[in-house]
Specification:
Elements lengths: L8 H17 L9 E4 L4 E8 L19 E9 L1 E9 L1 H5 L3 H28 L5 E3 L5 E3 L13 E2 L6 E2 L11 H13 L15 E5 L2 H12 L20 E5 L18 E4 L6 E12 L14 E13 L5 E4 L6
Parallel strand pairs: 1-12, 9-10
Antiparallel strand pairs: 2-3, 4-13, 5-6, 7-8, 9-11, 11-14, 12-13
Helix pairs in contact: 1-3
Length: about 325
């Protein structure tokens, strides 16, 4: 039989359901780190504006202080498209091998969402470098608005000679002391273009799926007493303080294979004010043939495909701090 939207609309609709089951099987974890929007433009410009840190005194009859905002960081997002195809053979169609067809369609959905998830994650995985090569061989820039890598010790701001860091000094392991060092960066380092302090309150702890680090994180965030204390009844200041986000692809290489060097990575972030941006121009979806023209004459295979198009950039790095957890400078 020839499967297309004209001959078998109900069956094709069921294919969409199978694709969605595969797509939904993959947890959209990394997406939580992003500000997500939809548009049909190939490129869009994003910038941050500074200059509104404090209001000033206003004496009777005087004009209000007039702010002098200026552009701080700027990045251009460029969309790109991903896709994958599955072949439904003549034998699968003729002999009603629905289980195999179902697995193929679910696989399309899984592969599409996994690619989006790894792309979103790898902006942080490779945040200590200025670029990386993705699994398709494309060079991906990981610089933020000031032209430096995401995690850096001397980020610059326009209009000020001061710099700030969002890579924790000496890269402490995830621990009570490490979290204190990360919090200290938020309270002492983050500045606007005038050099004034920017108040940022982290609300998420982000780690890889290393069981040891996961257990450490849960001990820190869930213990009712001080997790380092020698006796009960000691207050835990981190109890329910941060959402725990575990990124399955954080400790991977550019192709998606496990990378033990990244197992101890951890980050603190203020995700209510994230400057990581995901723009989608083609939502992930599966397409089935509309007519018999999609049948391959040479082998009678029928193609089903899954596609998406999106762009990713991180504009301002002040919302996040990072440690590789190795304890070296």
């Amino acid at each position: 039989m020839i499967i297309n939207t004209e001959n078998y609309p109900d069956f094709v609709a069921n294919m969409q359901i199978e694709w969605r089951k595969g797509y939904d099987r993959v947890n959209a974890v990394a997406k939580k780190l992003y500000d997500v929007s939809f548009n049909q433009k190939l490129t869009t410009d994003h910038s941050s504006m500074d200059g509104f840190t404090f209001a000033e005194d206003k004496d009777e009859g005087d004009d209000n202080y007039e702010a002098n905002p200026e552009q701080n960081y700027k990045k251009t997002i460029t969309k790109y498209r991903i896709g994958i195809t599955a072949k439904i053979t003549w034998e699968m169609r003729t002999y009603d091998r629905y289980t195999e067809m179902s697995k193929a369609l679910k696989g399309l959905g899984e592969a599409t969402r996994q690619r989006l998830e790894i792309d979103l994650t790898h902006r942080f995985t490779f945040g200590t470098a200025t670029s990386y090569t993705n699994r398709s061989g494309r060079t991906i820039s990981t610089v933020v608005g000031d032209g430096y890598q995401l995690f850096y010790s001397a980020h610059e701001v326009n209009g000020s000679s001061s710099t700030y860091r969002n890579r924790i000094a000496n890269n402490p392991s995830l621990s009570k002391g490490g979290l204190q060092a990360g919090r200290k960066l938020f309270s002492t380092q983050m500045i606007d273009s005038a050099g004034n302090k920017v108040v940022i309150m982290p609300n998420a702890l982000i780690i890889a799926d290393n069981p040891e680090i996961i257990d450490t994180a849960k001990e820190l965030l869930k213990s009712k007493g001080d997790p380092t204390g020698a006796h009960e009844g000691v207050y835990n200041p981190y109890l329910n303080t941060y959402d725990l986000i575990i990124l399955p692809y954080l400790a991977t290489d550019n192709l998606g294979g496990h990378d033990s060097d990244k197992e101890d990575y951890w980050m603190l972030a203020d995700l209510t004010h994230t400057d990581a941006v995901l723009e989608i121009s083609e939502a992930p979806h599966m397409s089935a043939p509309k007519d018999n023209g999609a049948l391959d004459f040479a082998n009678d295979n029928l193609s089903m495909k899954s596609n998406a198009a999106y762009g990713i950039e991180i504009i301002d790095p002040k919302f996040i701090v990072f440690s590789d957890g190795l304890g070296t400078a």
